[in-house]
Amino acid sequence: MAYQYIVGGVIASLLGFVFWYNSLVRELKKTRTSSMEFPVENRVKKTGNGEVAGAIDVIIVGAGVAGAALAYTLGKDGRRVHVIERELNEPDRIAGEGLLPGGYVKLTELGLEDCVAGIDAQRILGYDLYKDGKSTKISFPLEKFQSHVAGRTFHNGRFVQKLREKAASLPNVNLEQGTVTSLLEENGTILGVHYKNKSGQELTASAPLTIVCDGGFSNLRRSLCYRKVDIPSYFVGLVLENCKLPHANYGAIILEDPSPILFYPISSTEIRCLVDVPSQKLPSVSGGEMAHFLKTVIAPKIPPALYIAFISAVEKQNNIRTMANRTMPAAPLPTPGALLMGDAFNMRHPITGGGMTVALSDVVVIRDLLRPLHNLGNASAVCRYLESFYTLRKPMASTINTLADTLHKVFSASSDPAMEQMQQACFGYLSLGGVFSNGLSSLLSGLYPRPSSLAFHFFAMAVYGVGRLLLPFPSPNRIWTGAKLIWVASVRRLKKTRISMEFPVENCVKKTGNGEVVGATDIIIVGAGVAGAALAYSLGKDGRRVHVIERELNPPDRIAGEALLPGGYVKLIELGLDDCVDGIDAQRISGYDLYKDGNGTKISFPLEKFQSHVAGRNFHNGRFVQKLREKAASLPNVNLEQGTVTSLLEESGTIQGVHYKNKSGQELTASAPLTIVCDGGFSNLRRSLCYPKVDIPSYFVGLVLENCKLPHANYGAIILEDPSPILFYPISSTEIRCLVDVPSQKLPSVSGGEMALFLKTVIAPQIPPELYTAFISAVGKQNNIRTMANRTMPAAPLPTPGALLMGDAFNMRHPITGGGMTVALSDVVVIRDLLRPLHNLGNASAVCRYLESFYTLRKPMASTINTLADTLHKVFSASSDPAMQQMQQACFGYLSLGGVFSNGLSSLISGLYPRPSSLAFHLFAMTVYGVGRLLLPFPSPNRMWTGAKLIWVASGILFPLIKSEGVKQMFFPLTVPAYYRAPPF
């Protein structure tokens, strides 16, 4: 039967072959000139003399949501920030009152989530949509997030004041009331601002970088962007009291003539009503025409539950306010020394309430871009580097912008039959529920901002609208209206896409520097973990004089780094370090048992062709690391010292050593021609040596179980359950490590007892009977529950003369396969072999260019382990998506086939046969097998649709991971010029 699945799957896969091929070609084209190859020239110039004199690093103009949040974020990172805001009293606006769930997640990421506390903010879970007496509920997809994640609505002024208070609480943030009159410019570079303070005194403030976020009425943006402001409509705002919305925690949108009407709570006693009125039809407020318009035209369309409160609000004195709804596409004019953001830079129609979500997302992007920059003085270099902001912001910004402006056009009343049909199609599409409304609500919420998904749903909506017209009996008039509907949808969509979703940029600038360093030390190694200690021993054994500086020389106490795959053990032997697993009670591992839905399958490592001692090893991480350190320190030419490296010693763009504090706190400098940084996942030095893009998809909750045995000796266990996998493996002859993978959004508190309750009630019922009692005992044991963030970070090096980055400081993958140490030891072998021919490391630039081949030579092992680990974590994690569930079933079924199928994947997991092409083949075969399971013996439309989605999901998982590793380096390394770099004799 299994082989029938395979054959059937091959036939079925032909249905998706065109999609698969086109997708691959697009990925190849997209990455050919950029992400596939290592960006050798993309480096910020550091000359050592470009520092801007003054006490301020960054000036921020405006302290609204974007400005205040950015000030706090940069201040928290140690920047000296001067914020100048026109008016520091509490703002009183009828907009900026809605924060989407995606914006709340960004607020949490910035450490500002407490700013919605204490302001009577209201939770919003979605919207009720009303049209022609019918209604449908649109709920945000919050199931995968912790309970506190939701939308929030509030008084704008209260929220802004909270943000300002947070920013002003930092000692290095100066929040000042003043009016910026102009930018201080010299030779095309912005050096600061001219402003008047609160008392009217004219002053000048200078800084290397000025960030302008002074709102939609900015008087400074004219020299920083190509502004094209449009006002498609106005909001007429009212506050309703003593009433309730039809459904608690849900806003309401009423689709009526002339435009939509919005209702949402802004406090526990107030509801905001916003009536959208086309710009050409705005009645006068002062002349009473507006009140008459609201009573006669709008009031009859208000739901009965709100009618009386609406009339009272209209009659209440000074309660009617208007606001222009401005739109402005992002069209930046990059200027050295300045950056534009917020509503001063980009505005969309506020109908979806997405403005603050985009602003906070932009703040996160800018924070991450500025973190690696120690010196902002080289304005031109920083400007070119920050151009990447305009592309990195696109997923969130373009999705929210396009959706908001499109929905406003669709929701607005029109005499055009095609537009009327488009509105009917939109309402009908959202009323379908399931994947249709969930897809749009996931975009609307800002939780899953994917422009491709947005395009898909708009296309599907147009197709749905045409289908409504043509069924059951198409007529010439209906066909014509359907054609117009497609035309209207295309024009609306493509016009916005052209200006909103594309922005070709150069990310960074060249970093130069050349120098020869002579001294008693050949190589400095920062960090003496697995990578650092193994490298120190290897280089020392080759005769190099090595100085190792490690923060803490006591044995580490970690819940990770406890697994060495068979491929890693082979590398350990190659380095002469295989005796480091002796005498630490290390346990042999020959494979893993995989459990799902009561079924189990055994995955054995292919060890038949190796000597009997070759196998995986599990142990206490600290014991293994101490063994490696002892081996390194035993060499007379290796100096292992306890100390904390504070910064790299840099001159004219070349790293010449490090500044560090020794054990007694004395500040010292160590110099060497080459500094290798491998100080772990929390590295404070990597920001100038790579483009760090750290993600935390999940956390491991770790326990130590005692007095129990695993189902099969020398085999770990992986249990595929909700919410994520559970791992068991021995770390000594009497202890078993349990790691529970918990999604980042759902991590319970350990200190509050929520974690123990979660483990007992959710996880314990899924534990095998042999381990259940020990698991419950481990949960109840004091201080036995520990958590660890599972960080992932693709390798994106920034070659710097005199320095090299490696280990977890450089590249991390999800630890579900335990491949981290195997990749690290493989990298040590590559570096050792590259350095062996070099007698003199003094020519830093030449050595730097030569060592760029390391990033390609490491790929077979690194890319295989990385891609497989991140893919399996995504596949093994529980999901409500039927396609993802089928993908998990396909993976389990494929591994259960045995033979070439499970052996192929286990050879990759083990690190013994790291071949990226084999990885791609097996993942493709797994997808084909999954499609075959669906279509045999009787394919149905639903099964075919799920099969197509399965192919789409598999592509969505695999292609981004391959792209991050580099397609050319991974599959075609011989085409990468750096592969052929010869030693600089």
Automatic annotation (TrEMBL):
Cofactor(s) for this UniProt protein:
FAD
Its UniProt pathway annotation is: Terpene metabolism; lanosterol biosynthesis; lanosterol from farnesyl diphosphate: step 2/3
Supply the SUPFAM superfamilies for this chain: FAD/NAD(P)-binding domain
Listed GO CC annotations: endoplasmic reticulum; membrane
From the UniProt record, give one GO term of the biological process aspect: response to hormone
Q: Which reaction does it catalyse?
A: squalene + reduced [NADPH--hemoprotein reductase] + O2 = (S)-2,3-epoxysqualene + oxidized [NADPH--hemoprotein reductase] + H2O + H(+)
Query: Membrane-crossing residues?
Result: 6-25
Read off the InterPro entries from this record.
Answer: FAD/NAD-bd_sf, Squalene_epoxidase, Squalene_monox
Its localization reads: Membrane
Q: Name one GO molecular function term.
A: squalene monooxygenase activity
Q: Where in the numbering of this chain does the Squalene epoxidase domain appear? A: 207-480, 672-945
- Which key words are in the record? FAD, Flavoprotein, Membrane, Monooxygenase, Oxidoreductase, Transmembrane, Transmembrane helix
Enzyme Commission number:
1.14.14.17
Protein's membrane topology: Multi-pass membrane protein
What family does the Swiss-Prot or TrEMBL record give for this protein?
A: Belongs to the squalene monooxygenase family.
Q: From the Swiss-Prot or TrEMBL record, give the protein name.
A: squalene monooxygenase
